[in-house]
Design a protein that fits this description.
Blueprint: H1 9-24, H2 30-46, H3 50-57, H4 62-75, H5 77-92, H6 99-109
Amino acid sequence: MSEDRPDTPILLDRTHVALRDLLLKNQIDEYDYFKALIALAARWICLERNEDAVELVCELTPAYIEVGLPFQMVEDESFCLVARAVAGALSEHSPDMTDEDVRLAILLTSKPKAQA
């Protein structure tokens, strides 16, 4: 994305579609797709569209949350900050959320554990 083009709902929707296409064509792996969804959720939050951010976070699988997310948060400090910001924003100004949504938000804010 160019820095001089502000995010719009249409742009963010198109980005989501493009990411999904990359995943379906096996051009990115599932964990990279989920990492991108969290970053995309942060952009929705900047537009004050938390419901759209929640929809993205709800795509995350339990396997990613338990294995991929903690690894990515340890390996990429910038992504760790984004993931924590998303979790914080969604828990602070949450729309109607299911128990599963709450569980995902809690996992996003949990401190990752180092794997031996």
